[in-house]
Amino acid sequence: MPDHIKKQLLQEIAILEHELAHELPAEIKKAVALGDLSENAEYHMAKQRQEFVNARLGQLKRRMAELSLVNLANIPHDKAGFGSTVVVFDSTKEEEIVYRLVTSEESDVTKGLISTTSPIGRGLVGTRVGDVATIVTPNGKRELEVLKLTTIHDEAEEEESTGTE
Predict the structure, then answer these.
(1) Is-same-fold flag (3-69; 74-162)?
(2) For the purposes of burial, counting CB atoms within 10 Å of the CB of 99, is it exposed (0-12), middle (13-18) or buried (19 or more)?
(3) In the Cβ-directed half-sphere of 41, how many Cα atoms lie within 13 Å?
(4) Any idea where the domains of the chain sit in the sequence?
(5) Helix axes 41-68, 24-33, angle to 10 degrees
(6) What top-level class would CATH report for the domain 74-162?
(7) For residue 37, what is the DSSP state?
(8) 14: CB partners within 8 A, 6+ apart
(9) Best CATH choice for the domain 3-69 from the list 3.40.50.720, 3.40.1360.10, 1.10.287.180, 3.40.47.10
(10) What is the pLDDT of residues 12-65, one digit of tens each?
(11) How far apart are CA 97 and CA 90, in angstroms?
(12) How far apart are CA 118 and CA 116, in angstroms?
């Protein structure tokens, strides 16, 4: 898992855990002191927020567990996968496009960072140079021919040979 993603998730978990352990109990206690809970908007809002924070914490912790299971050794050396940079020719738009396959937390379509779980990402995972991936998007079908592929392993080798990280 990329360190900045891990840091981002851990930071959000810490904030939510603090809110759940300190801020929300104080809000609920203050709301209870106002009396009649059946018509106490402050109490109901605090309880709803507490449920939301609990659910979000569960999501974040599951995502951390999923990402920690990513084993770089299982990512293919000769096919597109997580961390790959893929240059494609989009016959629909008649243009070359560069995509980098990333986690959903890192995705930013405007920068060419495509999640491996998005329609384009799923369509490109497992492709090789010369393959044509047919992608079904909300805007219709697109055919993307893989022109160039740099896997996460290729990039690691380049960094080692140039001494950069």
Answers:
(1) no
(2) buried
(3) 0
(4) 3-69, 74-162
(5) 160
(6) alpha beta
(7) G
(8) none
(9) 1.10.287.180
(10) 889 999 999 999 999 988 888 887 877 888 888 999 999 999 998 888 888 777
(11) 7
(12) 6
Neighbours of 114 (CB within 10 A): 24
Average the pLDDT over 150-161 and give the result.
Answer: 66
Whether the model pTM is above 0.70 = no
Please give the Cα distance from 165 to 162 (Å, whole number): 9
Residue 88 near residue 145 (C-beta atoms within 8 A): yes
Q: Count CB atoms within 10 A of the CB of residue 118.
A: 18
For every residue of 58-123, DSSP letters joined together read HHHHHHHHHHHT--GGGS-SSS--TT-EEEEEETTTTEEEEEEEE-TTT-BGGGTEEETTSHHHHH
Residue whose structure tokens are 């989009």: 90
Structure tokens, 68: 């920690």
Radius of gyration of the chain measured on its C-alpha atoms? 22
The token pair at 42 is 């402050």
